[in-house]
Design a protein that fits this description.
It is built from seven helices and 17 strands.
């Protein structure tokens, strides 16, 4: 997404308070890094809270080809181009794992895309990191009925989700994954009536819709402030690092969410999402060791919070893989698709993502470009 539209469209790792967890979604914005663990929670109550936002439409919903300054990466350790928004979700990794572990039963060797394949083969994210109720992944040979299995399983676990047309693939191997995660805030934040001004890495300012908290000392907003946990903060003032105006920080927006959380962090991006996550985790660990950690982690009555809303959907094809041959089975990859939809507002966060990975036998080429025979005959019924 172009940087001046970033948080309101596709821009969007997570740290845990006294708990560790696997990240399934993260995105890095040119100035602000936001992300977290988005899991299955309180579905009915969440929908009730969000009733007034049901009519909102996505600020971006299209193929990633139309995004000029946003990239979708296959793994969190993929390089982050400077000044570019970077998005990653584990759904594609889950589909890759199905082909690697259940079908080929060996690391996938992709001719011409060795580096990407090596990263995907070495990645640690897997279905075991996720709540079984919130994710699904399966892979197999089409001749063995994998399409029918996926349709049956998904109809039972996620009956309202509309699947891709698997009938487009009539040979070879197929893997599919789907995950959905909903994390409602126990107490919805206040809406910023006039939005907030977001400044991108080029210094361009844009007014965006947002939510947050101010006047937290008032009784009406006290519980909202109490649900916020400051995971770490630091300022440029070396003599007063933790009490001066912070320039780098990470917040858990709802300390009540169990066992997962949504974390937003303002931090300078490192070379990759993985490196940025490692930096944040290290800072959180150091912050917890401070003598006055409990006091420093509280959102005070005079503190102010401003967060941009996000609502977008992106369809992305990993073109670095499509057309490349999986040497293990001598089949070219004909599809490597990932769809990510993310919504983040004063009520909480919602993530929905699916991925499709398919390889088929090389197409046969029938070309009559040398001497050939053509003849006509009487049609005969076969007996």
């Amino acid at each position: 997404m172009e940087s001046q539209q970033a948080p309101g469209a596709p821009q969007a790792t997570s740290g845990a308070s006294n708990r560790r967890m696997g990240v399934i979604f993260a995105a890095i914005v040119v100035v602000v890094l936001a992300g977290g663990i988005l899991w299955w929670m309180g579905f009915a109550s969440y929908l009730g809270q969000r009733a007034q936002y049901a009519s909102k439409t996505a600020t971006f919903s299209d193929d990633s080809m139309s995004l000029k300054k946003t990239v979708i990466v296959p793994t969190p350790d993929s390089a982050c181009p400077s000044g570019t928004n970077v998005i990653w979700c584990s759904s594609f990794q889950l589909a890759w794992n199905e082909l690697r572990d259940r079908v080929i039963k060996a690391p996938l060797e992709v001719t011409g895309a060795e580096e990407v394949a090596a990263r995907l083969n070495a990645a640690k994210q897997s279905s075991s990191d996720l709540d079984a109720k919130s994710a699904y992944a399966a892979g197999g040979w089409i001749k063995d009925g994998i399409r029918e299995k996926i349709k049956k399983d998904m109809a039972a676990q996620f009956p309202s989700h509309v699947l891709p047309d698997f009938d487009d693939y009539d040979g070879g191997i197929l893997a599919y994954s789907y995950l959905t995660a909903r994390v409602p805030f126990k107490y919805p934040f206040r809406q910023l009536d006039n939005g907030l001004v977001f400044t991108d890495s080029q210094g361009v300012q844009t007014r965006l819709s947002g939510f947050g908290l101010w006047d937290a000392y008032q009784r009406a907003y006290k519980k909202i402030g109490e649900q916020v946990e400051i995971l770490y903060l630091r300022s440029d003032n070396e003599k007063d690092t933790y009490y001066d105006q912070p320039t780098e920080y990470a917040l858990d927006l709802c300390r009540h969410s169990r066992p997962y959380q949504v974390v937003i962090a303002r931090v300078e991006p490192r070379g990759s999402l993985a490196e940025t996550l490692e930096h944040i985790h290290a800072q959180i660990a150091e912050f917890r060791k401070l003598p006055h950690h409990e006091e420093l982690s509280r959102f005070r009555g005079g503190d102010e919070l401003e967060v941009p809303e996000m609502f977008w959907r992106i369809d992305h094809r990993f073109k670095e893989l499509i057309g490349r041959t999986v040497a293990n089975v001598r089949m070219p990859i004909v599809e490597a698709l990932q769809t990510i939809e993310f919504r983040f507002d004063r009520f909480g966060a919602v993530l929905e993502s699916e991925a499709l990975l398919a390889a088929e036998a090389s197409p046969r080429h029938f070309a009559f470009n040398r001497p050939f025979l053509i003849y006509c005959s009487v049609t005969r019924d076969l007996i």
